[in-house]
Specification:
CATH topology of the largest domain: Rossmann fold
Radius of gyration: 19 Å
Structural class: alpha/beta
Oligomer: single chain
CATH architecture of the largest domain: 3-Layer(aba) Sandwich
Distance between the termini: 53 Å
Strand content: 15-25%
Order of helices and strands: HHHEEEHEHEHEHHHHEHEH
């Protein structure tokens, strides 16, 4: 008997899959719109105690952004060089909290935020260009940033902001997403979406963001444009974003270094002491 437990999708996920499946046969345009709606919808998760502890040491501040409210957290002296922390999809600013103490000890001011639809920020949905605009707004209010550390989807958001004008000397991208097209494919696999519906959803995205979005929101295309030095860190056992994505990014990012880990996966990598030390030393030196 196999000792491994089979993955059982949550009940809500089953309902969404069934709804998409039914609409695929009855009304394909509605199926595509449902998939597109779900793609932008965010989900909040409870903070573990380790994150609550780091937030207890932060200065909290809310800032207005367009029609939304974004929650900020900061550590260290305000007049010190600032490092921005950018979390991934359905994450929280505090997920990168393990980097805070080392950065503060090296004399940095650290700023984290919950993206719209995440953590304590308002809204129930967001998208890459919106988060990029949040980073641009934070740069104008609290920058310039000396460096940034981003995880997963946050890597795309941070690099888009940098490639469109946010100044930053160094950037650490941990398990970064590769491009929007691969994210669409990943989501389609998760939701068991038929290829014809995926193509319809792509057309909806092009109507909203322009036909050039596939080239515009691509890590390789972004990092080719920037002078920011990069540290790319990825685990070879990451089951959310394959490690070969970071290998391809490193090939086209001038002044970048690729560090591979093993046995840390997609999220535990954010709490690994060796990873934290490497990132802090890269920024400080």
């Amino acid at each position: 008997m196999d000792s491994k437990k089979k993955y059982k999708p949550p009940f809500v996920l089953k309902i969404m899959r069934v709804s998409i499946h039914i609409l695929t046969f009855l009304a394909p345009p509605l199926a595509a719109r449902l998939v597109n709606y779900l793609w932008f919808k965010t989900h909040r998760h409870d903070e573990p105690r380790r994150e609550q502890r780091i937030l207890d040491t932060a200065v909290w501040k809310e800032v207005g952004f367009e029609s939304k409210v974004v929650q900020l957290y900061s550590w260290g002296k305000d007049n010190a060089p600032t490092v921005l922390l950018v979390h991934g999809w359905n994450g929280r600013g505090a997920q990168l909290g393990s980097f805070v103490q080392g950065l503060v000890d090296h004399g940095y001011h650290v700023l984290a935020f919950d993206a719209p639809g995440h953590g304590r920020s308002s809204s129930k949905n967001t998208n890459l260009p919106e988060i990029s605009r949040v980073i641009q707004e934070l740069s104008e209010q609290f920058g310039p940033f000396s460096a940034g550390i981003a995880h997963s989807f946050g890597g795309l958001c941070l690099m888009h902001a940098v490639s469109t004008g946010v100044k930053m000397d160094k950037a650490v991208c941990i398990a970064s997403a590769f491009n929007v097209e691969r994210l669409v494919q990943f989501f389609a696999k998760l939701m068991q979406v038929k290829p014809k519906i995926v193509e319809r959803q792509k057309r909806l995205l092009e109507q909203q963001f322009g036909e050039e979005l596939w080239q515009q929101y691509s890590m390789p295309n972004m990092v080719r444009k920037i002078s920011t030095s990069g540290l790319i860190i990825h685990d070879d056992g990451d089951d959310a974003i394959p490690v070969d994505r970071s290998k391809m990014i490193a090939q086209v990012w001038n002044e970048s270094e690729l560090v591979l880990t093993s046995g840390l996966g997609h999220r535990r990598i954010l709490r690994d002491k060796a990873v934290i030390t490497k990132a802090v030393e890269f920024i400080a030196n």
